TrEMBL record:
<dbReference type="Pfam" id="PF00296">
    <property type="entry name" value="Bac_luciferase"/>
</dbReference>
<keyword id="KW-0288">FMN</keyword>
<protein>
    <submittedName>
        <fullName>Luciferase</fullName>
    </submittedName>
</protein>
<dbReference type="InterPro" id="IPR011251">
    <property type="entry name" value="Luciferase-like_dom"/>
</dbReference>
<feature type="domain" description="Luciferase-like">
    <location>
        <begin position="32"/>
        <end position="360"/>
    </location>
</feature>
<keyword id="KW-0503">Monooxygenase</keyword>
<feature type="region of interest" description="Disordered">
    <location>
        <begin position="1"/>
        <end position="20"/>
    </location>
</feature>
<dbReference type="InterPro" id="IPR036661">
    <property type="entry name" value="Luciferase-like_sf"/>
</dbReference>
<dbReference type="InterPro" id="IPR050172">
    <property type="entry name" value="SsuD_RutA_monooxygenase"/>
</dbReference>
<keyword id="KW-0560">Oxidoreductase</keyword>
<dbReference type="GO" id="GO:0016705">
    <property type="term" value="F:oxidoreductase activity, acting on paired donors, with incorporation or reduction of molecular oxygen"/>
</dbReference>
<dbReference type="GO" id="GO:0004497">
    <property type="term" value="F:monooxygenase activity"/>
</dbReference>
<keyword id="KW-0285">Flavoprotein</keyword>
Length: 391
């Protein structure tokens, strides 16, 4: 890295051609793995599988993903009461911040993204700035934050609050992240009194500063306020299909949605990449894949699906996903915000069509992660390279 690189409040890892993020973005399409660090992974079904929330299992998945050439892994974060979503969902789970960051010493190339609810706790920006700078050096610039504001009422109540209004949360997160970026950039002591929250600090100084301007910043959103936030701050925006989880609905709604997200960044003189979370049901033939999907549905955990439908949430991203559909809704047995089902050739074609609809990358989940990831690597990755989506 050039030590004399000019740093600013708005410095991004993409300003450094040698940064791990810049290297990953050379790929035509980003490829990530959405780690199942919570019990049940992404699917509400009792069909037997190896998927496990334990750190050892997820570390093995991450190392396999890196071996296959994946660009990043994600850790999901939630705060649940006992049986919050039923027995196959979140009964046990690792903290996304600690678990994902702990993978730094076991990997060498793959980006590690920790989901952090920046308004809970409450976090103090000096804590996260220092932790983030430390992890940036440990990982050599491979660590990042998926900034989450929290959309479930009971999570706010867990920390002693009433639910914060949707757009207000993004105002608070905007201030928090703006200050984080300054803390990672300032070369002198810096003092600040929050205008949105109760925190303040005097003569803060973070050293060493991050290697490439700041850690990678991600956020997941579908709302106007969230998209505006992404345009100002994020390198990668985690999106859903606005119209629903089946491939046809996704392809019809994503072009306008992804364009809107990218225009928000352009308006701020920036660029963002969009990342979609498909759950892939893959077998060697279409018939076998459909049978696999049906088996997942036939063993649906209705208690967990019902638990999710009772959650009080003001999230905008899932509004187009109808409840009650065990295949394609937000409360489905299969899971994911888009379900891709088929042979290697069909999965490749679906990913290609989603890319043409404006999706820059895929944060993939599976029902049975270890064997399904192995099959994906053997049967789909070569086809993605043939299609020009990977090299």
């Amino acid at each position: 890295m050039s030590s004399d690189k000019t740093r600013s409040v708005y410095a991004s890892p993409t300003d450094y051609p040698e940064s791990p993020l810049s290297q990953a973005l050379k790929q035509p399409v980003l490829l990530g793995l959405f780690l199942p660090i919570h019990h049940g992974g992404w699917s509400s079904s009792h069909l037997p599988r190896t998927t496990d929330w334990s750190f050892d299992y997820n570390a093995k998945l991450t190392q396999k993903a890196e071996e296959l050439g994946f660009d990043l892994v994600f850790g999901y974060s939630t705060w649940q009461p006992k049986n919050g979503q039923g027995p196959t969902r979140t009964e046990a789970g690792l903290d996304a911040f600690i678990a994902t960051a702990s993978l730094a010493g076991m990997t060498s190339r793959i980006l590690l993204i920790s989901t952090i609810h920046v308004l809970y706790g409450p976090w103090h920006p000096i804590h996260l700035a220092k932790f983030g700078a430390t992890l940036d050096h440990i990982s050599k610039g491979r660590w990042g934050i998926n900034v989450v504001t929290g959309h479930r009422a009971y999570e706010h109540e867990l920390f002693g609050w009433s639910q914060i209004e949707h757009d207000r949360r993004y105002e608070m997160a905007d201030e928090f992240v703006t200050v984080l970026k300054r803390l990672w950039s300032e070369t002198e002591n810096f003092s600040y009194q929050s205008q949105k929250s109760s925190w303040q600090f005097k003569d803060a100084y973070i050293s060493p500063r991050p290697l490439y301007g700041r850690p990678v910043l991600v956020n997941a959103t579908g709302s106007d306020a969230g998209i505006e936030f992404a345009g100002r701050h994020s390198d990668i925006v985690f999106i859903t299909s606005p119209a629903g989880g089946d491939i046809d609905s996704a392809l019809s709604s994503l072009p306008a949605h992804t364009e809107r997200v990218k225009k928000s960044a352009i308006a701020n003189g920036r660029q963002v990449r969009t990342l979609l979370n498909p759950l892939i049901v893959l077998r060697e033939t279409e018939k076998e894949a459909e049978e696999y999907a049906q088996a997942i549905i036939d063993h649906a955990d209705y208690e967990s699906i019902a638990g999710r439908s009772r959650i009080s949430s003001d999230a905008h991203a899932w509004r187009g996903h109808q409840k009650g559909n065990l295949r394609h809704s937000v409360g489905s047995a299969i899971g994911g915000n888009v379900q891709l089902i088929g042979s290697p050739e069909q999965i490749t074609e679906q990913l290609l069509q989603l890319h043409k609809a404006g999706v820059d990358g895929f944060q993939i989940a599976f029902y049975d992660f270890e064997p399904d990831l192995d099959l994906f690597g053997k049967s789909v990755l070569p086809l993605l390279k043939q299609a020009g989506l990977r090299f």
